[in-house]
Structures are given as C-alpha cells and as structure tokens.
Design brief:
globular; 23% strand; five-stranded antiparallel sheet; single chain; 46% helix
Length: 206
C-alpha cells in the first residue's frame, strides 16, 4: 500500500511539473475578443503605407512590427487580412519557408500567382469572411512551435468554422540605423500548417 502511495505521489509531481511547464512555455492568446476583418485590413494598409514612407524611421517601424507580430495570433490576422486585400505578393510572408514551398510549389507547370489568388479566395470564401476570434493556444512538441485555435466567421453562415493552426516562431536579425549599427533580433510567428488543411476544414463545414 505504501509503495502505491509513493508511486501516486511521484506521478502527481510529474504531472504538476508538466502542467506548470505548459503554462509557462505556451504563449497566451493576448486578444481573445473577436477581431473584425475590416479593422485588420485598415491596420494592414497602414503598415504597408508606413513601410514606404520616408518619414518613418526604420528602427521605429521595426519596433512597431515587433510589438504586433510577436503575438502568435498576429500570424493568422496577417494571412486573412492580405487574403481579403488579395495581396498575392505578400502571401509568402505569412508562412514558414518550407511550408510555403510545399503548399504552392507541389505541382510543376502551374501559374503560382493564380494559385495563391485561388487560395485567398477560398480562405475568405470570396470575401465573405468578416471576423476571426482566437480561442486558445495549445502546446506542440516541436521546438518554438504552438497551435492556435480560432473561429472564423462568414457573413452567410450561422455558426463559425473552427480551425486549428500550427505556428512557428522564427528569429530574424535586423541591422539598425543608429550610429552604432547594432544588430537586433526579432522573433515573429509564421504559419507552419498546410494552407490546404485549413481550406479543407473550411469547405467541409460549409
């Protein structure tokens, strides 16, 4: 009996440790409220305008991007906003390089730009996507990765469609414009799930 109690106590310690590790290592969703796509579109347009403006200092702009895109949910916000705006040139920036190559370059002889445009139309269902609500983040046993659960709202559907998307945090070096020219490091999240899995989930629930 004493042996059983000792084993049970050890298991409780192990599981408690795992629970604490998951809690500390998985970033919390910072914006559980529903995000209207019209607002995300406006934010995205402003970022594109600022990136081309000579009045915006490079370091300041990078810092603003760090604040926004260091959040896990920002990766999905970015994908859906640029999809509604049909910014095909920026589509690769939403995904890890390997995932983008696997999704878009999996067949030879295809028109890649048209393929990306088709992907965007299917994600938004021809512009019917109105908002996205982030539900929770989940642990993934893959370095620098996690999963985000989100509900997608379309104006012709009574209920939202829930998707589960893997994200990966990628570190980038940035050379500042200050006199000392110090290199800083930025960490942004990118989608590391196949876009075809996301589309399949959407279209199976229409």
């Amino acid at each position: 009996m004493q042996k059983i109690l000792i084993i049970a106590g050890m298991l409780m310690i192990v599981f408690s440790g795992i629970a604490v590790y998951v809690k500390l290592s998985v970033p919390e969703i910072s914006s559980p409220v529903k995000k209207e796509l019209v607002n995300l579109e406006e934010d995205f347009k402003k970022e594109m305008k600022d990136s081309r403006s000579p009045d915006i200092k490079g370091d300041e702009f990078v810092k603003s991007l760090e604040q926004r895109y260091s959040r896990p949910e920002a990766a999905l916000e970015y994908l859906f906003a640029l999809s509604l705006l049909e910014e095909t040139d920026l589509y690769p920036d939403a995904f890890t390089i390997d995932q983008y190559m696997n999704d878009v370059f999996n067949k030879e002889g295809e028109n890649k730009e048209q393929k990306v445009k088709d992907i965007m139309e299917r994600l938004t269902r021809d512009g019917k996507l109105t908002s996205v609500q982030f539900v929770k983040s989940k642990m993934v046993f893959d370095k620098n990765s996690l999963r985000v659960v989100a509900d997608l709202y379309y104006n012709d559907l009574k209920n939202p469609i829930r998707v589960n998307v893997k994200l990966k945090e990628v570190e980038h070096d940035y050379i500042g414009h200050a006199a000392d020219n110090i290199i800083s490091k930025s960490q942004f999240y990118y989608i590391d799930s196949s876009v075809w899995d996301i589309i399949d989930k959407i279209e199976r629930n229409i």
